[in-house]
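Service request form, structural biology core

Requester: graduate student, group of Dr. S.
Request type: structure prediction, single chain
Budget code: on file
Notes: please return the result as structure tokens.

Sequence provided:
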Amino acid sequence: MVEATRRDAGAEERRYRKLIENIRDTVTVVDASGTTIWTSASQRGDLGYRDEFWSGANLFDLVHPDDRAEIDDGLLRLLSEPTTIANGEVRLREPDGSYRHVGYHAINRLSDVDIGGIVITAHPIEHEVRLRSEREERRIELERTLAGRARFIADLSHEMRSPLHAIVGLAELIEGSDELPPKLERHVRSISRESHALRVMLDEFLDFSKLSANRLELLTEPFSPGAVVDAVAESQSPVARSKGLDFHVEIATSVPLVVLGDEHRLRQVLVNLVSNAIKYTDAGHVKVGVSQRESGELEFRVTDTGPGIPEESWPGLFEPYHQARQQDTTKGTGLGLVITKRLVELMGGALNFETSGQGTSFRAAIAFPEARRKSDVAVAQPLQQRDEVEGSALDVLIVDDSEVNLMLAHSQLEKLGHTPTMVTSGASAIELLASRQFDLVLMDWHMPHMDGLETTRRIRANEPDSNRIPIIATTASVMAGDRETCLAAGMDDYLPKPISLSDLGAMVARWSPDATAAGLEPEPAINGLEGLINELGDPEIVSSVIGAFLAEIPGWRESLTSGIESGDFDRARRAAHTLKSTAQLLGATELSTQGAQFEATDEPAQLVEQLPTLVAALDAAKARLQTVQSELAVEAGREATGPDTEERKTP
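Core staff response, request fulfilled:
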């Protein structure tokens, strides 16, 4: 009986051994140091070592040196937490010195008297690694292609915007003349209309390129949603009425007065939808409105009584270059709705439509947070208050190397009632400003010898803080990050070309001394702790803001480093984007600048090179903000115990 039991046990042991020897995965048992206790035949065969090699061989010695840290970490976890399972990928050395990729799982069975070791199952993953490598190569190549296309479109946009700026501006000036014969007036009006159409097409191609390359950046500023709807209606209603259409505006009383978001992009969405509605409606009416849903989202609606969208066009309506009707090829690029939908989604919303044979309705639902700070709500002042201070003549210095641009800006400013002075270089601007006071400077970015950025830096270095002159960037560079680059150099605002008379008039009025005196000074984003403290008025709140920033630093650092190490460069750029804007808010200028440069970099190799500089800036900002937080805690303590005789110091 005993002999039979032994035979049965031996048969069972042989059965399990054969089973393990023939499964695809290899099985190895090692002690805590990695020395082999037992290994399956498949393991011995896969790596190509002779059977006698495994007698006392150390499995960990076969691991590639670059992967050894992973093994050590996994072993430490297994020994300190025996119930855990370690898994990952490593490279194991073969007899010829080459390495094979394997995936593994390891479990601690040292306390099991029948096993007495760490059980490691592994399987070859060469095929998976090769596929992954090929996907990564394709991704990198796609990134390079998109970056190259974005650069090409950016260069093309810049080169086209400069002459277009002259055409739009000069046509606008001529069109306003009282001396034109009727025939020439019609021609000039046609030039103006077609040049504006060309500008719209150029903007659409550029926006589509930015969206495709994930390079379109949204601003977060206070604005009035009702005012945006009114402004869109004001610009589009003349076209509707010229077609005999009724134009209606509906703004619900529940809509917040001021919200935070990107006013320009929302306006672009509504202009696209309203202009489309007018374009395809020949009789009846067009309506644009905004209301607030119970969920808090704002719903922007554009409806018309046109013929509707053919059902066969619905599936591809938001596809690039899609035309809903055959005759649409003469009415645009086929990118308007694509851009509109992506902009709405980029703002965290959704765009939907309903259509029939008697009209179409587009609804964009976007959750804009309501603005609550006093300085944010101040942007909703009645527009007529601003109009009252727009009549004062200003001395404006124009800095541009293009004679056409100088002539155009000079004529536009004169028409607006201002006194322009022109110089053709940054050096001339610096020299003139040293001896003469101006109310405003219009600064071109791209100039030979000394560009507008460097010119601005030198002006700022030489002027007293009490006499800071507003400098406005005027440039055909409109890619993501260009506005931030100008502001980082010391400019106060950004006006992209082509610049219309109304655009220029609004910008000059915004920065005029009269507007400042009337309490209507522009409110750029708060840059720096002093502005933040003055804005919030409570050291404890500011300290909490800093604390939240400090708490996020480990996550940002991990996203940056692991993104670079794993080749997920988009993840690293997204972290840099968030760092850039938040650092700007807290006055960490160097960190903000490094973040902007990192985000704007396309080449992976350059990102790897820039990472240490960005991380160093992050560490420096962290140390400074920790000091500031301590000072604020002392300040809050003084305020809590009552006023003292010391003057308050603002970090």
